[in-house]
Structures are given as structure tokens and as C-alpha cells.
Design brief:
Layout: H1 20-33, E1 39-44, E2 47-52, E3 61-66, H2 72-81, E4 92-100, E5 103-110, H3 120-135, H4 149-160, H5 169-180, H6 213-226, H7 230-247, E6 250-257, E7 274-281, H8 288-303, H9 310-317
Parallel strand pairs: 3-4
Antiparallel strand pairs: 1-2, 4-5, 6-7
Helix pairs in contact: 1-3, 7-8
């Protein structure tokens, strides 16, 4: 499930109360605009296939409730923890909670099967535009999207070609990953304070770390002088930290990339993210500058072989599988 807290600007004191009917209509407008939000996944003869519902039939479910501030956390938990039935239910649903005549809370759930983090921007922008139009008594007027997600899927299939053809892009990139990841450790051994559970418990947490402006500027300066990006600097820092904690000198790290290589995809809601395995070599006790040079070479090679889906790489390499971890969480 794809769930994210979205920090919205505070409502100005002079703003009008929420028009719940207009908001629900706006949500339907956005669903009609983006095919990914009105796609369901059915199964036939043991094979899953997608079905894009007509815009007129694809109105997302909106549950309207009335509650107090104290009751709101429980309602949010209930909404979040109810699983999706992807064969019959749209990958988008909403709960609108009235806390007072001029105070509402909206819980929006988007399943990760059809959305990614980049999708938040066009989704929220289109929702705001549609709501403004609906409160004015009109339908939203926006330019048609140049492509839909199905167009991208067909294009990607043509781009990659047949993996059985050694000259295809898919075959060349899979061979790259087979070579690069040959002999990589199946799991990073770290001195944790408790054993890894036999099955995922989903009880992890997030830790936000804020850097002072001086530290941030120092990192930017280091990136400029070494010809690297901030991503590469952070990649090297994480690898160095894991090495110091006892993870060894061969550290593969899973990293998501946006996967939107064409500007026609910028305004589209859909799942384009791919996962790359960035294998980091810390042998020989390199200085941090030397490590950055290695990371730069590794990352650039990975980015140039990022078209083939991660699941195809896993299938090609066929690593030892364990219910306690996935191949990108070594």
C-alpha cells in the first residue's frame, strides 16, 4: 500500500468551509483523467491482467464520517489498515471526516500498484484544480494528457525487446546486472540488538535527521569538487557507516529511481519507480574521496542500465529467497 502523510498549507481564516460534494466530484474528475487510478486487476487461468474501467464507471469510494479530534486517530488507523480488493476496487479510496462545521480531515489512500511518490504532485495539483472548478459550478478544463500509463507500458516493452534475443536491450542489461552482482552477499550482517523476524512484522520506524546549513553546504561543496551528485555523496556515506558498523567491505544497497525518463510522464499518475542494486566496494580502506570515485562509477553504470525491471533482475539472478527479507533489503 502506498501511504504518505501530505503536509498541506493551513486554510486561511477567510477561506470557505469545505464543500464535501464538490470535493468528492473533484476526486472523481482526477480518477477519470488518470487511467492508472481506475485500473483493477483480475485473474484468468492463473494469470493476472489489468482492466481500465470507463471513466463514467470509475468513481472512487468516499466514506463520510463525523467524529471528534480524539476519535480521528482511530478512524485513520481503520482506514489505513483495511486492505484493498484490487480485483473489484479502485486503487484509490478516501475517507472524509467532519470534525466541525468548518473543520474536516481527509484520508487519501493510493495503492502502490498504480502510484509512486512522484505521482503526488500531479495528483494533488489536479485535485486542487478540479475542486476549484466544482465549487464554481463547472467541470475542470485541462489539457488532455499526452500519454496514459498503458502507453508507457507498451513503449517500455518495445524498448526492452525480447530477453531471449541477445541483442535486445533487455538481454544486455540483464547480463550487466548478472555480472555486477555475481558473488554479492545475500545479506548484510549487522550487530543488531534483536534477531530478524522469520516473517516481516512491519514494525519498523522512520528516523528524520536534520543537517545544519553549514553541513549541507559542505556536502554540496564536496559533491562539486569530486564531480559527484548529492545522491552519490549520501550513498557513499551510508555505505561507509554500514562498513563501520560491521557490515563488511562488499555492501549492496537497494535504491529507488523515478523511472520517468521522458517529460511526457511528468504529469502522469502511475507507478514508474524501479529499484537498482548499488554494490559498493570498500575494500582496501579507501579514503572518502576514493570511495566517492568508486561510488560515482558504480552509480553511473547502474543508471545507464536502469530500464530493465528489478523483478526481471531477481528472476535472472535467482538469489536465495527468505520470507524475512526481500532482494532489495540486503
Amino acid at each position: 500500500m502506498h501511504l504518505r502523510r501530505l503536509q498541506l498549507p493551513a486554510r486561511p481564516a477567510a477561506a470557505r468551509p469545505l464543500d464535501a460534494d464538490a470535493w468528492e466530484a473533484a476526486l472523481a474528475d482526477v480518477t477519470a483523467r488518470h487511467e492508472a487510478l481506475r485500473t483493477v486487476f483480475a485473474e484468468r487461468d492463473g494469470r493476472v491482467f489489468q482492466r481500465v474501467l470507463p471513466a463514467g464507471e470509475a468513481r472512487p469510494a468516499v466514506e463520510r464520517l463525523t467524529a471528534t479530534e480524539d476519535e480521528l486517530p482511530g478512524l485513520v488507523d481503520t482506514a489505513v489498515n483495511r486492505p484493498f480488493d484490487l480485483a473489484a476496487e479502485l486503487p484509490l479510496r478516501a475517507t472524509l471526516v467532519e470534525l466541525g462545521p468548518e473543520d474536516h480531515a481527509a484520508v487519501l489512500l493510493l495503492h502502490h500498484i498504480t502510484t509512486d511518490e512522484w505521482s503526488d504532485r500531479p495528483f494533488l495539483r489536479d485535485l486542487a484544480a478540479a475542486y476549484a472548478a466544482r465549487t464554481a459550478g463547472t467541470a475542470p478544463e485541462w489539457q488532455p494528457l499526452p500519454v496514459q500509463y498503458a502507453d508507457y507500458a507498451l513503449w517500455q516493452r518495445r524498448l526492452l525487446g525480447d530477453p531471449a534475443d541477445p541483442d535486445s536491450r533487455a538481454a544486455r542489461q540483464l547480463e550487466h546486472w548478472r555480472t555486477v552482482l555475481d558473488g554479492a552477499p545475500e545479506e548484510l550482517e549487522l550487530p543488531t540488538d534483536r534477531p530478524r523476524p522469520a516473517r516481516p512484522a512491519f514494525t519498523g520506524a522512520e528516523l528524520d535527521v536534520a543537517f545544519d546549513p553549514e553541513v549541507h553546504e559542505g556536502l554540496r561543496r564536496l559533491a562539486r569538487t569530486t564531480g559527484t551528485s548529492m545522491f552519490m555523496v549520501v550513498h557513499a556515506a551510508v555505505a561507509a557507516l554500514l562498513h563501520r558498523l560491521g557490515a563488511g567491505t562488499d555492501i549492496p544497497l537497494g535504491a529507488p529511481i523515478a523511472g520517468r525518463g521522458d517529460e511526457a510522464l511528468d504529469d502522469l499518475v502511475g507507478f514508474f519507480v524501479n529499484t537498482l542494486v548499488l554494490r559498493t566496494d570498500l575494500s582496501g580502506d579507501p579514503s572518502f574521496t576514493e570511495l566517492l570515485a568508486r561510488v560515482r562509477e558504480t552509480d553511473l553504470a547502474a543508471f545507464s542500465h536502469a530500464d530493465v525491471p528489478f523483478e526481471a533482475v531477481v528472476e535472472k539472478l535467482n538469489p536465495t529467497r527468505s520470507l524475512s527479507r526481500n532482494p532489495s533489503s540486503r
